[in-house]
Amino acid sequence: MEINGHTQMLCLIGSPVGHSGSPAMYNYSFNRLGLDYAYLAFDIKEEETAEAIKALRLLNVKGFNITMPCKTAALSCCDRLSKAAELIGAVNTVVNENGILTGHNTDGLGWVRNCREHGFEIQNKKMTIAGSGGAATSIEITAALQGVRELSIFALKDSFFANAQATVEKIRANVPDCTVNLFDLADKDTFYREIADSDIFTNATRVGMKPLDDQSLIEDRKAFRPDLTVSDVVYNPRVTKLISEAAEAGCKTIPGIGMLLWQGAEAFHLYTGMEMPAAEVLERYFAE
Ligand code: NAD
Questions:
Q1: Helices (H) and strands (E) in the chain, counts
Q2: Which residues are catalytic?
Q3: For 71, phi and psi rounded to 5 degrees?
Q4: Hey, whose CA ends up nearest to atom 40 of ligand 1?
Q5: Phi, psi of 195 (to 5 degrees)
């Protein structure tokens, strides 16, 4: 479709944004579905977040995505927040409905959808998850809101640990039906004991991502039972050591690239009410 006087704008804000695949992914999908929207990317520093959102409000854009480092600063610029965005403390998608800006966080929803697309439903399951950073927090909060029965969170005692403690407190206060516990990732006996009692293990740390691509948090391969599902947030490389070894041992595996795809597709659905042509987007824009 050609841009015209009625075309509505969507965009990405954050810094850096030049490498982002979002403009290509969304513009392809708008064209494919005949939607009169155009998507751009703007380099916005953290301290410019409020000013940028004020400008986007004035321009009456249809919606926008937010990437680092603006995701937290954007919280207070929205008129409303989804429960997930409020508890995660970060916004990655804002929808403009008649001048009312609603902030969402689709990272965790993308992870849930990726699991579903791989035939794994998280409702009423027990998950052991490693990590306490941005990706981990989104998944832990969203999984709790979406009905996971029990969460055993393992985190290094590094600068992110307090984040994991806050996540546990938020889940206990807001989702009392979900049993959640936090453990030190250095305690390997407890780590393997909790995995042995779980339906799914998720790596939500940087382990497995370049330059840690020769590492996996599961060093004892006996932990891989055929009825354990193994998911990774890392998508660079597409097949991590964890995913490769779990697949070899006969586990159902859920690589991280689908989370990236589906968090975008969830945002697309919030903007348009339509399903993004995810399979085509995956093939065109997410091949390694
Ligand atoms: P972050 O910096 O916010 O958090 C990093 C996490 O990794 C922390 O919990 C930290 O304790 C842990 N960590 C770092 N080194 C470790 C080590 N040696 N051993 C154990 N734990 C270690 O990062 P983030 O934004 O949460 O990203 C984490 C990974 O998730 C990255 O690989 C990123 O590319 C990926 N990610 C994927 C998606 C997706 O859509 N698939 C989305 C966001 C992030």
A1: 10, 12
A2: 71
A3: -65, -35
A4: 260
A5: -65, -40
Q: Kindly state if the Cβ of 182 falls inside 6 Å of ligand 1.
A: no
Interacting residues of 42 by C-beta distance below 8 A, sequence separation 6+: 11, 12, 13, 17, 52
Tell me: the pLDDT tens digits for 50-64? Answer: 999 999 999 999 999
In this prediction, residue 287 has a pLDDT band, given cuts at 50, 70 and 90, of: confident
Round to whole Å and give the CA distance between 222 and 217: 13
Q: How many other C-beta atoms lie within 10 A of the C-beta of residue 207?
A: 21
In the reported structure, the alpha carbon of residue 11 is separated from the centroid of ligand 1 by a whole-number distance in angstroms of: 25
Helix axes 161-174, 134-145, angle to 10 degrees: 10
Q: Name the nearest CA neighbour of 40 among 61, 54, 55, 60.
A: 61
Q: 210-224 pLDDT, tens per residue?
A: 999 999 999 999 999
Nearest C-alpha to atom 6 of ligand 1 is from which residue?
205
Closest CA to 232 of 194, 201, 274, 191: 201
Q: Which residue, among 43, 57, 156, has the nearest Cα to 100 in the 3D structure?
A: 57
